[in-house]
Amino acid sequence: MGKTRKMNPYLLLGLGVAGAFLSSKENRDKAMEMVEKVKHKAMDLWGNTSNPDPDLLEKAGRPDPHDLEDAKMVGEGAQYSVDYYNKQVQSTK
């Protein structure tokens, strides 16, 4: 509980500084430009999720038996659900 009381003045100070900085139109414009740049860089970094790769959609749900890493991942996922079910059944007995 002591940490929250110590953090409140810093939070208020930060809000005050941000408010003072954003009080002028020029600084608000600079801040909006920076937000847009960061947004575009994040979209470039993580890619556009609205247009997924067509190859991934074709492959989804049907792993290629010759793709060992993908088959291993699917097998591990199946094993997880079996282990979970077994633990639930054993814990009720």
Secondary structure elements and their pairing?
Elements: H1 2-21, H2 25-46, H3 54-59, H4 68-92
Question: Can you put this structure into words, describing what you see?
Answer:
- The mean pLDDT is about 75.
- The chain is mostly helical and about 90 residues long.
- It is flat, with a radius of gyration of 26 Å.
- Helix content is about 80%, strand content about 0%.
- The protein contains four helices and no strands.
- The protein has one domain.
| Amount of helix | over 70%
Question: Major beta sheet, specifics?
Answer: none
Taking pLDDT < 50 over at least 5 consecutive residues as the criterion, the unreliable ranges are none
What's the overall geometry? flat
What structural category characterises the helix and strand content?
A: mainly alpha
- Number of DSSP strands? 0
Strand coverage percent: under 5%
Protein name: YtxH domain-containing protein
Organism: Siminovitchia acidinfaciens
Region (Disordered): 45-64
